[in-house]
Amino acid sequence: MEGEIRRPDVSEIVGQIRRKERPRDSFVRQSLSSIDALDSQIRAWVCVAPRPNIIEAASAVDTTAPLAGVPIGVKDVLHVAGMPTAFGARLSARRAEEFDAACVGMLRGAGAVPIGKTVTAEFAYKHPGPTRNPHDLRRTPGGSSSGSAAAVAAGMVPVAIGTQTGGSIIRPAAFCGVTGFKPSFGAVPRDGMKVSCESLDVIGWYGTSVTDIGAIADVLLSDERVLQAPTRRPRVAVICGTSLHALDADAREVLVVAERALTDHGATCTQTAFPREFTMLAEAHRTIMEYEFARSLAPVVSVAHSGLSEELLTCVRRGLAISRSQYRGMKDLQSSLRDAWNMHFGDADLILTPSVPGEAPLGLATTGSAAFNVAWSVLGWPCLHIPFGRSSHGLPLGIQLVGKWNGDAELLGWGGWIESLGPDQGAAINSESRIAPA
C-alpha cells in the first residue's frame, strides 16, 4: 500500500482501553473499517464474523485483562467458535465451529477479540491462496500463513495467529515486513488445530513489534511476563548462507548491517558455517513432513479428491510411498541432531541468520523458498523474524534470530534489544523508493 501504514500496537490499544480513553470496542471497529477499505485488494481474510457479534464481544471485555479489546486474526486451520474452518481448500460448505482452538480460547480469555479467519495455503501446504503482498500486490506474501502476515502488515489487525511446518510463519513475516515468532516445538497447545505434521507443526503469531509478540507470549507461553530486557550483551553465532539456496545481495547486506550494529553495541559475534549435517536436516524435514502429511490428509483425499490441488495430491502420493523404516530413521536423526547442534553452537545465546533468500518474489503462484527455515523447524528451536531495512526496490527485508529449544523468553528478550538497533524501516538500503502496487 502506498505510504506508511498506521499500526496501533497492543500496548497502545490496551492502555487506552484500560484508562477508558477509548470505548472497549473502538479498535475492533477500526479493524473492521480497515478490512472494508483494504481487503478487496489484499484478500487476507477468508471470513469475518458478523459485525454485531464482534462489537458485542468487544464491548463486554474486561478492561483490566492483559489483551483487553485487541482484535486478532486467526489462520484458517485453527477453530474459532462461530466461524467455519475451511483449511484453504475448495471443500463443501462447512458448519461453524462450536469451540475455540485452545490457543484462541486462551487469547479470548485474556480479552482479545478474534474477528475473523485469515487465508492459508491449502491445508497449510504449498498451493497458495488469493492473498497479495500489501507492499506490492504483484508479489507473494509468502505462505502458508499468508493472510495473517498480510493482515498485520496492512494494519487491519495488530496481531494474527499463524502456524509453521517448514517456514510458514517466518517467510511471510519477512516478505510482508512484520515481526513474526515461531515458538519452540510443543510450547503452545495445538488442540483445535488441523495438525498435518505431528512432529513439526507449531502455532506462532505476528505483531507490529517484538513488544507485541511478547504480549501474546505472556498469555500463550507463561503465567509470568515473558519479555524481559537482557542484563548483558549476547553472544551471537552468525550464519550467512546455505547450500540449499543462494542469498541475494540485498539480503546479505542486511545481515552485514545487523552484525555490525550488534558488534558496535557490545555483542560478541562469531561467523559460523552451517554444520555439514544441514543438508541432512533438510532431507529429514522432507521425509518427516511428507510421511506425516500424507497420512493426515489421506482421509480428506479419499472423500474430496476432486476439490484438492494436484500439488497437494502429489505430496500425498510421495508421502504414502515413504516406508515406516525410512520415516523412523529420519525421526532418529531429528532427535540426535537436536543434541549435536546444541553442542555445535556452544555458548552462543542466539543465532543470527537470514529469514529468506531476498525480497518477496514477483508472482502469486508460489509462496517462496523455505531454505533458511526448515532446519530450525526440524530441530524445533524458536525463531523470531525482525524487519531490518529494505531492498533496492524498497521492499521489506529482515533478519532471523534463532534460540535454543525452550529458550523462547531469552530469545524474545534479545530480540527486543536487537530490534531497537535496526535501521529506519522507511528507508531503502540503496535509497530507491518503495514500489507501489498497480
TrEMBL record:
InterPro entries: Amidase (IPR000120), Amidase_dom (IPR023631), AS_sf (IPR036928). SUPFAM superfamilies: Amidase signature (AS) enzymes. Residues 28-412 form the Amidase domain. This is Asp-tRNA(Asn)/Glu-tRNA(Gln) amidotransferase A subunit family amidase. It comes from Caballeronia udeis.
